[in-house]
């Protein structure tokens, strides 16, 4: 007789799981709710529904400029990082080679090193190279972190492919480029999209690295919001934070739906 060994059937496991989920998401729910609060203080009680703080965000030209910088940096870093990640994944998914594990560990190293340490290292490198701090330095720094983020889902997708597909394509006369374009790329496309979206979200929300390597006129939205919070939390911070949450959730939902469609 088969028995259901689901962990949720054990005592207290289910309530504990729901408690953890509530702890993780309740602050976000409160943030979203307070972004529509008509009160003048971000921490005040509910004073009625209002869109005034979203209007305030739309009228804040400095914030809009910071948002534009964030979108530009995230787009460039995601494109470049994903392209490098695809090449790296293709190189490590075929036949095993000497010290492959060390190579894969080096790809993921930026995710392990503390953000402050990585940011200081980037800053010192740019200063040593004489590269002015601005959008270019931000793009380069964010690309470094986009590569390992995009690499993981792409590599996982490649690992699930049947090696005989490439062999069959070669037997039919398809070259490496044709085989990749007609067979491999369509199959790993969901992994590429998932990796790119994760890299974009990570770049869009980065504070530490952006704070160190950005220069005058290249402030990103998270750094701008961080500066606002240091001077006191205003309801406008709730509104712009809600917009960032909405963007992140939308991208993750798209990634999830694509994964289900091409599974």
UniProtKB/TrEMBL annotation:
| TM region(s), chain numbering | 12-36, 71-90, 102-129, 187-213, 233-258
Name the source's superkingdom.
Bacteria
User: What topology in the membrane does the UniProt record assign?
Assistant: Multi-pass membrane protein
Pfam families linked to this entry = BPD_transp_1 (PF00528)
Keyword terms of this UniProt record: Cell inner membrane, Cell membrane, Membrane, Transmembrane, Transmembrane helix, Transport
Q: Which Gene3D superfamilies does the record cross-reference, listed alphabetically? A: MetI-like (1.10.3720.10)
Gene Ontology CC terms: plasma membrane
Q: What residue stretches are annotated with the ABC transmembrane type-1 domain?
A: 67-255
InterPro entries given for it? Bact_Polyamine_Transport, MetI-like, MetI-like_sf
Q: Which SUPFAM superfamilies match?
A: MetI-like (SSF161098)
Q: Does the keyword Magnesium apply?
A: no
User: Would you kindly state one Gene Ontology biological process term found in this protein's UniProt entry?
Assistant: transmembrane transport
Predominant localisation class: membrane
Compartments it resides in: Cell inner membrane; Cell membrane
Which PANTHER family does the record match to this protein?
PUTRESCINE TRANSPORT SYSTEM PERMEASE PROTEIN POTI (PTHR43848), SPERMIDINE_PUTRESCINE TRANSPORT SYSTEM PERMEASE PROTEIN POTC (PTHR43848:SF5)
Its family?
Belongs to the binding-protein-dependent transport system permease family. CysTW subfamily.
> Could you tell me what this protein does?
Required for the activity of the bacterial periplasmic transport system of putrescine and spermidine.
> What name does UniProt use for this protein?
Spermidine/putrescine transport system permease protein PotC
- Organism lineage string: Bacteria, Pseudomonadati, Pseudomonadota, Alphaproteobacteria, Rhodospirillales
